[in-house]
Amino acid sequence: xxxxxxxxxxxEQIQAEYKWQVENIYANxxxxxxxxxxxxxxxxxxxxxxxxxxxxxxxxxxxLKLRDEINILAGKLxxxxxxxxxxxxxxxxxxxxxxxxxxxxxxxxxATAFIEPEILxxxxxxxxxxxxxxxxAEYSFYFDNLIRQKQHVLSPAEEEILSRSAEATQASENIxxxxxxxxxxxxxxxxxxxxxxxxxxxxxRSLIMSADRxxxxxxxSGLFGSYNTFRNTFAAxxxxxxxxxxxxxxxxxxxxxLESALSESNIPVNVxxxxxxxxxxxxxxxxxxxxxxxxxxxxxxxxMYDLYTPLAQAVKFNIPYAEGLKLVRxxxxxxxxxxxxxxxxxxxxxxxxxxxxKGKQTGAYCWGVYGVHPFVLLNYNDRLEDVSTLAHEMGHxxxxxxxxxxxxxxxxxxxIFTAEVASTTNEILLNDFLLKAxxxxxxxxxxxxQYLEMVRATVYRQTxxxxxxKSIYDKAEEGETLTADLLDALWHTLNxxxxxxxxxxxxxxxxxxxxIPHFYWNFYVYQYVTGYAAATTLAEKMANGGTGDxxxxxxxxxxxGSDYPLSILKQAGVDMSTPQPVELTLNKFSTMLDELEKLIxxx
Length: 603
Ligand SMILES: [Zn+2]
Hints:
There is one protein chain. This protein has 603 residues and is mainly α. It is built from 25 helices and 7 strands. The chain has helices spanning 29-47, 57-87, 92-112, 115-121, 124-130, 140-148, 156-169, 171-183, 201-207, 213-229, 231-251, 257-263, 269-281, 284-296, 321-331, 337-348, 384-406, 416-419, 421-437, 441-477, 484-499, 526-544, 547-558, 565-572, 580-602; strands at 188-190, 196-198, 302-303, 352-353, 365-368, 374-377, 503-504. Helix 17 crosses helix 19 (421-437), helix 20 runs antiparallel to helix 25 (580-602) and helix 22 crosses helix 25. The longest helix has 37 residues, at 441-477. The protein starts with 28 loop residues before the first helix and ends with a helix. 36% of the residues are buried. The model is unreliable at 1-5 (pLDDT under 50). It is an enzyme of class 3 (hydrolase).
């Protein structure tokens, strides 16, 4: 059922077997309303525990259990409203239901806000004694994680000041967003067919991939020229954001902003440092990729604006959904029969909303609903990327499915650090399978190009971002001022180092730091690299390992948030405190370069 954007069907026109079954959460609105009332009525009950949590372990356990029950119901209520709204955003009924649930969620979090400060106020000895009670056993990791951060929690009066400061210290990021996404104007350039195109961030992404070199050069100069006009303002917003994070990390008595950011997932600082060192020791494959790209594109010099040009023109794969399902089933076969059974269950029992319809949310996501099942939104349109997205989202879905079945609510949610591992493992398995199965040269070239670009953009580029972040925080923490000149120079040096002597690092790129929203997310991007490297390692084990590896992988999927992410991954067989996962990933990148070299020398 392929569709074009000009003739989208209405939701009613889509066959039921291609729609998710939100009725698996609530069969009708009366049942939804009944749970809504139930949560509403439970809130006064939970506030009655205020001031009593240190009295007996039974009181503490009862309060935490009640909070879980409320959160499970609130999760179902919200999912029901949001999934229905995403089916068709024009449906006012579900917009209203979303609004109503959001109000309830805010009330819920306000009503339960006393719990954690009160637990932290219980003396260590008393809490240790409480924790020997069986009723609190399922909260063991929750307590460990809470207590671990105790030394960084300040007095109630100081905490109050910090929380009131948040709105004001948010200004740098807000100004960045307003300037970059609302006020910035980009110039007109001349497109492939000679037509005038007004540049935008969205259009830049396709124009920079143009096979016409003049077009991508104009897009490149146009985009970065605009950022360059505001370089001092962008330097000020970025510097302001860095100062904000330094302020909070110092006030909370961390040794550095990096330590403070990583402590959330309990990741030691040396994991970050080792990642930068390992990628720096393995830049040679990226330099080789640049040289091969220059050769394949038959360029005299390779410039920054040539980087995104695909080695193979887009190949139309045209994969109907039924064929896509078959490919995903075959691609994920290395995960074993139990996994295959759950995959099959997911594919056939109302987890997935397959096709686009009028008003439907764009893109793709997975939404796990505790006590029900995961839901997956797709906009499947017969492209190879859509098959990849299906494998990716089913990775999230089955991770949620296993974790929610195996864990009590308190430890069922996996952390950001491990969130993309299962999904990316699936994508890599599918890609490897397709590469093996494809004999057509153009298609093979296309798949290799996709893979190489994925590693370049996820591993190399994000590590370069992570290195930039580390440098600017180091400098700012030593009292240096982050000026536009300093940031430009740093960005230029990093690009020269990462892309190597074969690349002409055009000066326009120097201001690229100004357009990266992730630099306002405080040491977030390195997790793209660790997640991808962990997934590559696991996919390798699934394809070539024994039954022990496969069992450990299923255990990983079942572990949810029951331990710290590094421990969970280590149990699965990936030690992120060593260079191996990243080395293995970049070795695989090298092997793909060999394949690419063979293919392009044949032509
Ligand atoms: Zn994902």
